[in-house]
From TrEMBL:
Gene this chain is encoded by: Tfip11
Annotated region described as Disordered, given as residue ranges: 15-43, 113-144, 215-238
Biological process annotations from GO: spliceosomal complex disassembly
GO terms assigned for molecular function: nucleic acid binding
Listed name of the protein: TFP11 protein
Length: 761
């Protein structure tokens, strides 16, 4: 066990035991036998540094002692390491320092034993002659040798026995400046360290310092050796004057700080001179700009004062609106910045408004609708604010032109609209058309919504279609380009009044069509169709019921009254009327005629005559086409059934030829319609790509079925004359040589692709 009551000794700084001593201490703990110096192998004993002087390196280990460059890494011979070989491969030369230029050192720090057992710094500086700061990095062997000799000469004694002269180190002003710039960057952490309280207990007495820098300036403790008395021939020995050294050092530091501070002040003044030079240049530019602005403003002020002078009643040459516009154009062209910066609203109120009132004092908008448009358009470009993006009209103070139109021009319009009759719409429409591109949008909206529309609404309420000789569309439709959707609230009462007027109407009265036809494109398609179905179609159905079909003496007036409405009512509505009220009677008359040994030439003419009464659009409808095909089938059956009786010569051939001709016309018409539809689709860019073009007729039918969401699929196990049957929606078809055949009541009927699609829907 160890004695922990013994006093604590300080550890000597800078000394480190060698590996041999560490091993000897470990062995002493176990065997309590010290290891002798002679027992250490010679290879591990450091050699002496050949310095040429009295300096002896320490022999207490590899770190504390100084080892020559020649023996660097010699211990490797007792191991299996290859470090020496690797260093040699990288260019290391034994006997020289490490690094690219051999500037490195092996043992940069040398231990120095203190005189006593005091703490760190008790006996002066701890720095050694071979510290890192005393071995600067050199770039060549000559500089390294010279530096080494300089360091080494400090250890030698003067051969003459005299006292060596002290060497002084000098610093130039540039070095002090450079040091001051570096210290300026590190001033913040040094300032914090300078305020730390430090207690020094390394001496005989306790001392208190208030910064670490005071420790480096403390007095050196003199040696304990007794002073020798001065003999007769002896020379006085040197003695330490710490206070004097401290004061001198303090004066030197103060002088250095003054130099550094002066350099900083000089640099600051130079920077200030540069900044002031730039400021002078900027101020000169600003001054010239301000002088130009003052000159321009003076000229603008002169022009404005001239305008005010000419506006006085006593002036012989009064200012006109055109001359004032020219003056404003001059201001805008030559003095644009000043014109834009000025308050144009106040300027226009003071100068332009009185001239504008005088200009329009005798104006009648309905008689001369274009009066003043050119001059107002010119003032719009001069006064309108370019930054006014939204013409809402809530803030008139932001734009001089809008305020001018609202306060000067608008009162004349209100007066004239109050006296205007809505049925005389031509002059008012022309007036607004002339000014639509001049006046602001929000003012035009105000005129249409607040002035024009209430007048039209009131007039529509008082309109009576049975007594008024002037049709309503003549004074409503001219407002469509200007008002557009604003007229929607008027359409519902107009339809109601027209419906009431049509209650006692008969199709023989053509005036109804003249009144309703202009509204077809104005009303929405849904509302127009509903109006026709409710008020017109029933009247036409009653008219067809009254039609008497007599091949020998036919009166066509009722039929013409109905067909005349084609284009007004939809095709589906017209086809429904014909299917319900015309074709049943027509087919019945045909059957009764065929049963009485008729003249088939007259029947053929009668058939073609009735068919020519319908337009191509009506004939192309599948229902109408089926009715006429049914008539052909009736005629064919009549011709084929009269085998034993009398038959007109050539009747069967004529009927067959008629059937073939009519079917061919139908196919040609449908093909032409499909070709037109394809061309229209190609023009719109909806045409199919080249890769998706059907290769045969079946593919074409498949494509059409997909476009119209119709199911097209083969019927499994079903064939007709060897041809595969298909279902196209609810219709059964088959394809033969590019022709579609649809299953009828008794036979298969050829049909076009468009008719097939219509039937499947």
């Amino acid at each position: 066990s160890r004695d922990y009551s013994a006093p604590v000794n300080f550890i000597s700084a800078g000394l480190k035991k060698s590996a041999a001593e560490d091993m000897s201490e470990d062995d002493s703990d176990e065997d309590e036998k010290p290891v002798k110096q002679e027992e250490i192998p010679k290879e591990f004993v450091p050699k002496k540094l050949k310095t040429g002087g009295n300096f002896k390196p320490s022999q207490k280990g590899f770190v504390g002692g100084t080892k020559s460059f020649v023996d660097f890494g010699s211990w490797e011979r007792h191991t299996k390491g290859i470090g020496q070989k690797l260093l040699q491969k990288m260019g290391y030369v034994p006997g020289r320092g490490l690094g690219k230029n051999a500037q490195g050192i092996i043992n940069p720090i040398e231990a120095k034993q203190r005189k006593g057992k005091g703490a760190v710094g008790a006996y002066g500086s701890e720095r050694t002659s071979q510290s890192l700061q005393d071995f600067p990095v050199v770039d060549s062997e000559e500089e390294a040798e010279e530096e080494f000799q300089k360091e080494l000469s400090q250890w030698r004694k003067d051969p003459n026995g005299g006292k060596k002269k002290p060497k002084y180190s000098y610093k130039t002003v540039e070095e002090l400046k450079a040091k001051g710039r570096i210290n300026k960057q590190l001033s913040a952490p040094q300032k914090e360290l300078s305020q730390v309280k430090v207690i020094d207990m390394t001496g005989r007495e306790q001392k208190v310092y208030y910064s670490y820098s005071q420790i480096s300036h403390k007095h050196n403790i003199p040696d304990d050796s007794p002073q020798q008395p001065l003999g007769k021939d002896s020379k006085p020995q040197g003695f330490a004057l710490p206070e004097l050294e401290h004061n001198l050092q303090l004066l030197i530091d103060i002088t250095e700080q003054e130099i550094i501070q002066s350099d900083r002040q000089l640099q600051y003044e130079r920077d200030m001179v540069v900044n002031l030079t730039h400021e002078i240049q900027k101020m000169s530019e600003v001054l010239s700009h301000e002088e130009t602005a003052i000159s321009n403003l003076s000229k603008v002020l002169e022009m404005v004062e001239e305008c005010e002078r000419r506006m006085q009643p006593s002036c012989e040459n009064p200012l006109t609106l055109d001359e004032c516009a020219k003056i404003f154009e001059t201001l805008q062209d030559k003095y644009y910045e000043e014109y834009r910066m000025s308050d144009r609203v106040d300027l226009a109120v003071a100068i332009v408004y009185p001239l504008m009132k005088d200009y329009f004092k005798n104006w009648d908008p309905l008689k001369d609708c274009t009066y003043g448009t050119e001059i107002i358009a010119k003032w719009k470009s001069l006064l309108e604010n370019d930054q006014l993006l939204s013409h809402s009209g809530q803030d008139l103070s932001t734009d001089a032109f809008h305020r001018l139109m609202w306060e000067i021009w608008m009162p004349y319009v209100r007066n004239i609209v109050a006296q205007w009759q809505p049925r005389n719409c031509g002059s008012m429409v022309d007036f607004l058309d002339s000014w639509v591109n001049v006046i602001p949008v929000w003012i035009l909206d105000n005129i249409l919504d607040q002035l024009i529309f209430p007048k039209l609404q009131k007039e529509v309420e008082s309109w009576n279609p049975l007594t008024d000789t002037v049709p309503i569309h003549s004074w409503i439709h001219p407002w469509l380009p200007l008002m557009q959707a604003r007229l929607e609230p008027l359409y519902s009462p107009i339809r109601n009044k027209l419906a009431n007027a049509l209650q006692k109407w008969h199709p023989s009265d053509s005036s109804a069509k003249l009144i309703l036809q202009p509204w077809k494109d104005v009303f929405t398609p849904g509302s127009w169709e509903a109006f026709m179905v409710k008020n017109i179609v029933p009247k036409l159905g009653m008219c067809l019921n009254e039609l008497i079909i007599n091949p020998h003496q036919q009166h066509m007036d009722a039929f013409y009254w109905v067909i005349d409405w084609e284009g007004m009512i939809s095709v589906s509505s017209l086809v429904g009327l014909l299917e319900k009220h015309f074709f049943p009677k027509w087919l019945q008359v045909l059957c009764s005629w065929l049963s009485n040994s008729p003249n088939y030439e007259e029947i053929t003419k009668w058939y073609l005559g009735w068919k020519s009464m319908f337009s191509d659009q009506v004939l192309a409808h599948p229902s109408i086409k089926d009715k006429f095909n049914e008539a052909l089938d009736i005629m064919n059956r009549a011709v084929s059934s009269s085998v034993g009786g009398y038959m007109q010569p050539g009747a069967r051939e004529n009927i067959a030829y008629l059937t073939h001709t009519e079917r061919r016309k139908d196919f040609q018409y449908e093909a032409m319609q499909e070709r037109r539809e394809a061309e229209n689709m190609a023009q719109r860019g909806i045409g199919m790509a080249a890769s998706s073009v059907p290769m045969n007729f079946k593919d074409l039918i498949q494509t059409k079925a997909e476009e119209h969401n119709i199911v097209f699929m083969p019927v499994i196990g079903k064939r007709h004359e060897g041809k595969q049957l298909y279902t196209f929606g609810r219709i059964v078809i088959y394809i033969d040589r590019g022709v579609v055949f649809v299953q009828g009541e008794k036979t298969w009927v050829p049909t076009s692709l468009q008719s097939l699609i219509d039937m499947a829907k």
